[in-house]
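Example 3.2
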Amino acid sequence: MAKPWGLYIEVGRPDQVGRHVLGESHELTVREAATSVTVPHTWLKVPGEPAEVARELPEGWVVDADETGHLMAAGLRVTSPTTPEGYTVSMETHDGVTYVQLHAEAGELAAQGQMAILGQATVVDRVITEQTHRRRGLGAFVMRTLADRAVADGATLGVLGATDEGRALYETLDWKAYAPLAACIYRPENV
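Structure, written as tokens:
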């Protein structure tokens, strides 16, 4: 969902109900986004040095060092990936968010990712490969599948926030790191 300062994505987990993604780290923009939040465990992703962003946050907000990472982007292109052997893929779109899931033959979730399109850009989020299915190219398959769908929907640019580990995968897919990315969470004292 588009907001004056960027994009808001519903996550729906107890530890992360939703996430605001800002395109810039101007103090007024950060404050406006942060002060709009009233629900604990709402996140804010801001391009910029975590220590600098922390100074711009109102009371109740903290920077989560474990989730802080890198803002990355890539020009999107169609690659038509082949579903890895032994897995099935599903894709669904709800409320403007496209979800891709890979399941193993036994039915368990092996990898997943999601994206939302804003204009000609898509924000890729929550790309996860389960521990027992890693090192099989599943994360790359999810990324390529999301990119193909984004291009089909008119996007030309992909943007995402990456951990150090994720950055290594995305760089193999021609994504580039452009800025540090501060991950902030609303944790008022009474929660």
